[in-house]
Design a protein that fits this description.
Blueprint: H1 8-18, E1 48-54, E2 61-67, H2 68-72, E3 84-86, H3 87-102, H4 105-121, H5 127-153, H6 159-168, H7 171-178
Antiparallel strand pairs: 1-2, 2-3
């Protein structure tokens, strides 16, 4: 590793100063145990995010985990799992499960061996096949773009419609250009 010019003693002192630091979430300074993608939605598989509920004018505060997909795509109803899981109930349940797995090293080793074998078999798909699919998709998108430009040149589409298509690329505008 190249020399950074910082004396080794300073680095050691800095590491010593922060060794006991705990990273708190920006959500009411609560140390969320399962944040960062450790817990996932049972319905869609997306990561759970944190959520704090406060009653106005009281000290009542409750902490929850909820599906990120519901939060991000709420208007689109992508994930119907709209339940909030209480952190004080969910975190101990997860800890009991994980500690139980860790206390049985033979089962853990067997599970890890099975995971390694799945990785070796290449269960992740075929990169060359995926690349061809994306290349075909790009060709199709470019073909549509050219058709819209031709429709604009033939005065079949107005400039605002063309701009709207290029900014959103919606199917409804695709049908409008064909008529």
């Amino acid at each position: 590793m190249p020399d950074s010019g910082i004396p080794r003693e300073w680095v050691d002192l800095a590491r010593e100063a922060i060794k006991d630091n705990v990273k708190f979430s920006q959500n009411n300074n609560q140390p969320w145990e399962l944040s960062g993608g450790l817990a996932h939605c049972a319905e869609c598989g997306w990561a759970l995010s944190t959520h704090t509920v406060r009653k106005p004018n009281t000290k009542y505060v409750n902490y929850y985990y909820r599906c990120t997909r519901v939060q991000v795509h709420y208007a689109y109803k992508v994930c119907t799992n709209n339940k909030h899981q209480r952190a004080d109930i969910l975190e101990p349940m997860v800890w009991n499960y994980v500690s139980g797995v860790m206390k049985n090293p033979e089962e853990l080793r067997a599970d890890l061996d099975r995971l390694i074998e799945l990785e070796r078999r290449g269960t992740r798909g075929e990169p060359s096949k995926d690349a061809k699919l994306w290349a075909d998709k790009l060709v199709e998108v470019e073909r549509k773009r050219t058709k819209y430009q031709e429709a604009f040149a033939a005065d079949a589409v107005t400039l605002p419609e063309l701009k709207a298509y290029f900014s959103r690329g919606r199917d409804s505008q695709d049908r409008r250009a064909r008529t």
